[in-house]
Here is the input.
Amino acid sequence: MSAYAKLMSARIELQNQTLKKSGHNKFAGYNYFELGDFLPVVQTIFHKNKMAGVVSFGAELATLTIVDLEDNSQVLITSPMSSAALKGCHEVQNLGAVQTYIRRYLWVTALEVVEHDSIDSAPPKEAKETPSKPSRAIRSKEQVESLVRAATSAELLTTVWKALLPEEREMVRDLAAKLGEQLKNA
Here is the structure.
């Protein structure tokens, strides 16, 4: 049996497993699979079917090579490399974040793991704000501050701002004023 046939068998076997998503995107409100949620099951399936998967990283391309250990046939899954600029992280930590994400995406692609589609389920980019009654409780000051500090770009900060209730926006203004005072006194 070729690597492609074994990969298809592994996909079917994996889809018959009960997997739990442990990752949670607090901002967008959805759960996702982390590597630890499915990779141990995949490794067991691969071992049973005499297969191996090896991830490698190049300057421009990451590759998951799936090998049939009986006939050495291979399936290659690739992804362009990317970068990360996480707040408060060293360069090597950003590299680790990129590698972890790309590893997850390579395995999800190879095994056809079904994930939440954050792009299709996202609100339109040009959505207009419409005043309405709040349909949820007001977040705590700590929650609002956490959302603001987690925004790693102006675009994300704008998205966070648009999602805040008027009372929560006032908390952001207070935080900005407080930070401004701290900078003056530094």
Observations:
- The chain has a mean pLDDT of 83.
